[in-house]
From TrEMBL:
Gene expressing this chain: hemE
Residues that span the membrane, as ranges: none
Protein name: Uroporphyrinogen decarboxylase
InterPro entries: UROD/MetE-like_sf (IPR038071), Uroporphyrinogen_deCO2ase_HemE (IPR006361), Uroporphyrinogen_deCOase (IPR000257)
EC number(s) given by UniProt: 4.1.1.37
Alphabetized Pfam families for the sequence: URO-D
Species of the source: Streptacidiphilus alkalitolerans
Coiled coil: none
Keywords attached to this entry: Lyase
EC top class named in words: lyase
């Protein structure tokens, strides 16, 4: 697993998405959506019928089909590998499940040193179905980039410590503040697992990776810098040598954008609360931006969606950064898929040079 400077070549290397990640000129602003595969699509609900979420993640042909569905339907500029942030934890034997309508639920939450024993290192063989599915996908996708992803140490820790989704993260923060040594050990193990999981995806052919620290916006900047940033930085450092763009995203992270970039991201994802030109003032020069239309806007009339999308494009232009158009968080399950298809076409048309 040497850090070969692989990286894609040819038409894939020159795709609008990868060019934008590198801050280069693009023929049009590339678009993809977080959670573009999944419950907003009837064709997804159909192929998932009777198959549990985590089981589906281990079925390479099914993963290939689900990953390709939004690319076919919406003409987005990148695919995101269909999986979940808890898949690598399941793969090393953590007793957890994804409960429909709830999210990841962990049988034995980690609250003390003994709990750490649940977290061994991840070996590529633990996730051979990921290598297989990505191989199938890159063969089919051709010049369309495939984004690999993983959960960041803080967000994974929040599920492991709380035992499931949580509004206030009280157990997680109690551990972080109350037993810094145990917290460091927990995050250290998670950064190793996450780095190994991203390496598997890159070596199988993913041409970019996104590190989801969805819930890290719960932290103040000083706590982030001290207690979380080093673990995320280790993940980015571990995959630095591959030459694939590294995207970093979280929700409610307006006060953390600069630090999240400094952790080692090439592209910083921004939610809808901070306009992209303002985000550019918070993120170190040279890094591209991704975002940031409010996902609930897709429930508004088409003319409103277009006007708001134009505002995002204008702010991105003013930022002077590479820009990948996305939502400020994932597609909501009840979104009308046609609204997404129309949004992609609109962004492509408006940004064409
Ligand atoms: O299209 C894509 O974006 C790829 C698929 C994807 C899933 N999960 C599939 C999924 C991605 C990128 C994720 C990441 C993920 N999972 C995150 C980070 C992204 C974010 O939204 O901030 C987080 C926090 C999770 C944890 C998780 N898994 C949640 C909160 C849920 C939703 C629970 C629910 O049912 O509302 C899941 C389950 C999940 N992961 C589903 C899908 C399609 C829904 C379950 C199903 O379809 O049966």
């Amino acid at each position: 697993n040497s850090n070969r400077s692989t990286g894609p070549t040819g038409a894939l290397h020159d795709s609008a998405f990868l060019r934008a990640c590198r801050g280069e000129a693009v023929p049009h602003t590339p678009v993809w959506f977080m959670r573009q595969a999944g419950r907003s699509l009837p064709e997804y609900l159909k192929v998932r019928e009777g198959i549990a979420m985590l089981d589906s993640c281990m079925m390479p042909e099914l993963v290939k089909e689900i990953t390709l569905q939004p690319v076919r339907r919406h003409q987005v500029d990148a695919a995101i590998y269909f999986s979940d942030i808890v898949v690598p934890l399941k793969a090393i034997g953590v007793d957890l499940d994804i409960k429909p309508g709830v999210g990841p639920v962990v049988a034995n939450p980690i609250r003390d040193r003994a709990g750490l024993a649940q977290l061994r290192a991840l070996e590529p063989d633990d996730v051979s179905y990921v290598t297989e599915a990505i191989g199938l996908l890159v063969a089919e996708l051709g010049a369309t980039p495939l984004i690999g992803f993983a959960g960041a140490p803080y967000t994974l820790a929040s599920y492991l410590v709380e035992g499931g989704p949580s509004k206030n993260h009280e157990n997680t923060k109690a551990l972080m503040y109350g037993d810094p040594e145990l917290w460091q050990e927990l995050l250290d193990r998670l950064s190793g697992i996450t780095a190994a999981f991203l390496k598997v995806q890159i070596e199988a052919g993913a041409s970019a990776v996104q590190l989801f620290d969805s819930w890290v916006g719960a932290l103040a900047p000083d706590d982030y810098r001290r207690s979380v940033m080093p673990a995320s930085a280790k993940v980015f450092e571990a995959v630095a040598g591959y030459g694939v763009p590294r995207i970093h995203f979280g929700v409610g992270t307006g006060e953390l954008l600069g630090l999240m970039g400094d952790a080692g991201a090439d592209v910083v994802g921004v939610d809808w609360r901070v306009p992209l030109d303002e985000a550019a003032r918070r993120v170190a020069p040279g890094k591209a931006l991704q975002g940031n239309l409010d996902p609930t806007l897709l429930f508004a009339p088409e003319a409103v969606v277009r006007a708001k999308a134009d505002e995002v494009l204008a702010a991105a232009k003013a930022s002077g950064r590479g820009h990948i158009f996305n939502l400020g968080h994932g597609v909501l399950p009840s979104t009308d898929p046609d609204a997404l298809t129309k949004l992609v076409a609109h962004v492509h048309e408006r940004s064409a040079v």
